[in-house]
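Exercise 7. Given the components listed, write out the predicted structure of the assembled complex. Treat all entries as one system.
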Amino acid sequence: MKPSFLRFLCVLFLVPLAARAQSAGHPANQLRFCITSQPKTFDPQLVTDDASETIRYLTGGVLVRLNRSTQQLEPALATSWQVDRSGRTIRFVLRHDIYFSDGTPFSAADVAWTMQRLMNPALHSPAGDAFRSGEGRVVTQVIGKDRIAVTFPRPVVGLARLFDQVAIMSASSPHGGMAVLGPYCLAKNKAGSWLLLKRNPHYWKRDTAGHPLPYIDSVRIDVEPNRDIEVLRFLHGDIDFINSVDAMDYDRLKARAPSTAIDAGPSLDSEQVWFNQVPGAPLPAYKKAWFASTDFRRAISESIDRQALARVVFRGHAHPAISWISPADKYWFNARLSPHPFDPHGALRLLAQDGFQLRNGALYDRGGHVVEFSVITNAGNLYREQMATMIQQDLAGIGIRLRIVTLDFASLIERITRTFDYEACLLGLVNDELDPDAQMNVWLSSAENHQWNPSQKTPATSWEAEIDRLMRAQASTSDLSRRKAEVDRVQEIVFEQEPFIYLVNKDALSAVSTRLRNVRPSVLRPQIYWNIDELWLDASGGGKR
Amino acid sequence: MKLFRAAAIAFLLVVCLAGLLANVVAPASCARQFREQPDAPPSHAHWLGTDDLGRDRFSRLLYGTRVSLFLAPAAAALAGVLAALIGGVAGLAGGWIESCLMAATDLFLSMPWLFLLVTVRALLPLDVSPWASVTITFALLGCLGWAAAARVVCADVRTLWSSDALLLGHASGSSGLHLLRWHIVPRLKPVLWAQFWISIPVFILSEANLSILGLGVAEPLPSWGSLLSELESFPVFTTQPWQLAPLFLLVATVSCFHLALQNQESWA
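Answer.
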């Protein structure tokens, strides 16, 4: 055998083995998990994707932090804050002796610089857009080294909470944006493969015993687009948690390693059906009349067995949806609302009020038209296809024939936003925000995302006009109890009118290794590592979490 | 061998009859959901258990047989006829006609059909019934699946046309039509049969994949393709082996067709 061939064999077999050995032998105090794609940016003010948001959360220091468990704001870099009565100005008192990861001291000037950069229209910052309530400049007033006031041109709803998304950047560090105030700082980035975060040696927070936080030395984040591989890697102990798993994977994990699967209860996400009520839609007039009828929509709603959807499709890991605000949103959910009943007989009574008749197992309207329509949903989403199939059987029970059409996502969006050539649509809403003001773009009748009848010049119905009034009213005051009353009323109107027929709120499902301790799973993102600085790794890996 | 052939024919008859009489033979409707028993294992009531929504798997297999066993061969036959016509004409005519037809075939093979299918789905009205949807799907598969077979047919026809037997036929005064009818078509039969049998399972699986685009069999109608696609996401080989029934039925049916028609091919 020639030496060159031997060398080739060595390279062929030993290099992969060495790589594998390196991968298996990761440091003991290193947390490992996966993200589905490479972060698009490391600039905390330009974050638009989940992967970049992960890096921002782990590295960014913020003035106030939302406790994902209590859903209350807690002091972070600011020890206290106060919003004035106008809702335009917020004043912060900052911590002393805080340093960026590169040792540069932190002061009110950094907050001022961050806010000015964030609100610069030329930057096009998505985080900055949340603060934009009107035309005009944002004024920052540094009042000594540890006090600052930020004034916006118009009142900003839920102003303090928005600062949970604002990572403070250094105005004077030679390292620019790489100098951070969060628990970790970026050490290595192997684009498309993995990222390594190291503990920030200057992180400000300490535990009750005075030990510096975070407990975990480093975080390795692997880029893994394939969800099945991520689950397999978790089962093999290669990663420590999966932030979000679906119901099917959850059951697989529960069967293999019961103590690792966590169901944190209903999330903020919802699944819903709506009818096309666009006046100019290419639909027959009699169908438009059905879809515009409140009794018809309520009848459809009452004939859907939501409990069965949650139990069969989501394997018990979902809850019947009640309102456009999930019960997971502890403050804003209207607790006076009770779930919609599953009552096919009641549905037929409602339909009879509108002149519908059940004859020989088929429903006819007063014009003698057989009641049948199609529902579109995005192809490839197993859960939505299964929900549609179950609704098909439920509606068959009251004589309605439902056709299910699955479309690729681009065609579906084209139909619901441009051509309006559809009858009903089943889709979901992924929601990150607790504050209902974030859904103004859905509930205002003039909004583009007012899906059942978007971009109205004037409200088509009296109840839509009332929703417009209430949503605008809640957006123009900082009186929390008044806002709550107005948002509660909007929820009641939507419950009665059912422009969206809410089906289920999916549960927040995660998988966490037993070696990861202090985990307090939340329904809010990031579900598992929201308290990253308090997590620690138990080398023994057993026992209770 | 005769015994095997008889057994294969008997099996095919049973499968065809079961598919045709699905609404009589099946213990339940393919759409009926037994919601208290989703994902149930085989039992007296449900011979092959139930699926994710509690539908009887055995009934769905029978109804799926009706869809796939009749429409997939129909699509394969359509593709075979197109391949025979286009490949045959190209091989017989030769010259610039052959060049043009084979260039068209190559173009057909290299086209991104996915985009055409997406466009077709976008153009279809939403109120197409499940049966119309599945028929359109298989018709599309038949219309798109001829190109590779046409190349094979063309090459075979060209070889046959210049063979000693055909030269002798020409020399002895036989007309072109006579040679085509009695010498070329019989010799092409094995090639066309092979293309036909290869196409059937391919079309069944293609139909399953097309559901990703919203084409294919619409709920609640089942097909072998949609039943096979359920095998993708679960380690059924160890935990729920009864879910493999559609796969076994597909393999057994295609094998039995081969056995049953083996003599015919030898004759051809």
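Discussion: DSSP finds twelve helices and no strands in chain B. The domain at 2-24+55-267 of chain B is CATH 1.10.3720.10 (MetI-like fold).
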